[in-house]
Structure formats: C-alpha cells, structure tokens
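Hi everyone,

Forwarding the result from last night's run.
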Amino acid sequence: MEAEKPVVMIVDDSEIEAEALGAILAPDYHLALAYSVREALELLDSANPDIVLLDIVMADVDGYGFAETLKKMERYRDTPIIFITALKTGEEDEIRGLALGAVDFIGKPYSPAIVRLRVRNQIQLKLARDQLANQQGELKAHNGELENSVAKAVAELAATTEGLRVSLHEREALLRELHHRTKNNMQLISALLESVSEESQDEAVRRSFDEMAERIFSMSLVHEQLYNSESLSDIEISSYVRDIADHLSGCHNEGASIQFDLEELVVPIDTAIPFGIIINELISNVFAHAFPPGSCGTLQIKLHRFGNDAIEIIVADDGVGLPQGFDVSKDGSLGFALVRELARQLNGSLTFESKEGLHCDLKFPRTDGRIRRI
C-alpha cells in the first residue's frame, strides 16, 4: 500500500507566487493553498499540514503574526515553518522568525531544487519526530500496562503470601496442639503404669512397669520441648538431657550429686527420640545400681560435639561399677538391649568401661546437616 503523501500548506497573498511554488512541489506532496492568513486559519484543521511555507509580507496579517498564532496551537506547535520572502532579510528578521518557530528562510527568487530539498529535509525531520512521539506514546502506554500488570501480580503475590502465612500459622498451631496432646497422653500413660506398679506385689513386675513409665515419660519430654520451641522439627538436646536427669533423680536418687557439662546442640526429632531413650536407660541404670543404699557419689553427664560431624555424650559415675565378668554386649536385659539397638539405629558407637565406677560413652554421626550448635 502506497504511503500517503505529506501535506504542504503554502500561504501567500499572491496567487501566482503560491501556485508557482506549488507547481515545484506538486509531484511529491498534497498541497493546501491559502491566499491570506484568514483563509489559512480556516484551512488548518481540514488540511492538517506537515509543513507551512509562509510569505512574510501579506495584506491582512504578516507572516510573523501567522507564525505566532500557529505556534500557540497545541496541534501545530511542532509543525515546521519556512519563510519565503522577496525581502532582503537581515539578522534581526531571521532572529525574529526563528524565535517564532521558523526552521528556515528561502529568498526569492529561489532555486526549485533547493526548495524541494529543504522542504523534503524538514518534512523528514517532522515525520521522524512524529514517529518518535508515537513510539514514546506507545511505550508509555505499554509501560502503563506493565505497571498495572506488575501491580496486579504484586497484589496477587501479597495475597498468596498472606494466605500461605495464615496457612502456615494454622499448621504450626495444629502441630503444637498435637505435640501438646501427645505429651499429655504419654505422661498419662506413664502415670497409669506407675499406678499399676504401686498395686503389684511382685517386685520384678513393679520394676518393669516403672522402667516402661520412665521410658514413656522421657519420650513425652520431646513433645513438650517441641510444643514450647520455635521449631516444630528440631530439639535442643542439652535441656532435654537435663530434664530427663532431673526427672529420674526426683524418682530414684537418694544421695548422688549430678554434674552437668552440656553444650547446646540441636538435632531433628527423629534423632532426639532414640537418643532420649538411651539417656534414660543409662541414667536409670546409675540410680538403680551404682550406689548401694546409704552410699553417695557423683554422676557426670557430658554432651559435646565430637570432631566436625558427630556428637558425644558421656554418662559416668564413681559407684561400684559392673560386676566381675559382666559383659554389657551380651547382657540380655531389656535396658541394655534397648541401648545397643538404639545406638545402632543412630549409627553410633557405644563403649562401656568399668573402672572406679562405670563410664558409658556414646558417639553418633551427623546423619544430616541439621545437628548444629546454638
């Protein structure tokens, strides 16, 4: 499709001069001829010129006056004006014309080739400016659409984030309530076992029920810690060890003092539960066998990081130690069997040394990256 020709408005009160100038430009442009400023003003909106060729001296209003009027109109503020005059223009005339928005002066008589070139150059500049203005307008519109899209996306993201935050808060509340109820139920079971134990006349039965009650209670402490913790999956085990020891001491200790050397370390719940049962068994064994009735001694519990990738806990006493010839690795009692099996589940190493009491040393590796110092 052929591009529409640019429009050239020629304003000259001499019809001959106007038509002669038009004849030079006619092949390449649409022409709008006006023979007075009044006629030019009436033609403006219908012609919508891309450039105005304007005589300076005219009968009604001179070219300067028309140029000033034209540049006050928003629609034609950027339309180029070329003054065509037979007057000998001086510097002041050109300054006045340029100040009113003119882009060039062409004196009469003129060269048709020069007129065509100057008109072409100014129209090309004007069309380029118009194209740039259109592109800027489109870019501004696209930017507005983009800003609206971004604002909408941000609002949707904020709403989604808030929904997730509320959902996460509700999930955490439910998990805390679950841990709280689990702790309560386990401690209730522990208390029921203790009640059954008190009613039994068989010492072996009573001891078995008491041991089960203590194991269940030690596991319930994990859920109590999770309920009171900021994390719902990690346990700080130094306080966990201390809680188990204090509970067992309150139930069984008749004279031993407890010395703690505990580093604050965090492990996941899957590690904390078997770890807690092991500690429960080792401390229970001390209170049950290390110190004969009427004697006293010291129980030491140490918890530290071992190397870069493991944790070590030591439970040691200065009591009577193991009986002569007693082999812990072969003992078939439930307590030591549990300790050995749970140490194996932790991929840990468990050693016992009976010398001036019993020294138990458990080392287990970091099975994931979640064991850490506080």
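Residues 112-199 form the longest helix (88 residues).

Cheers,
N.
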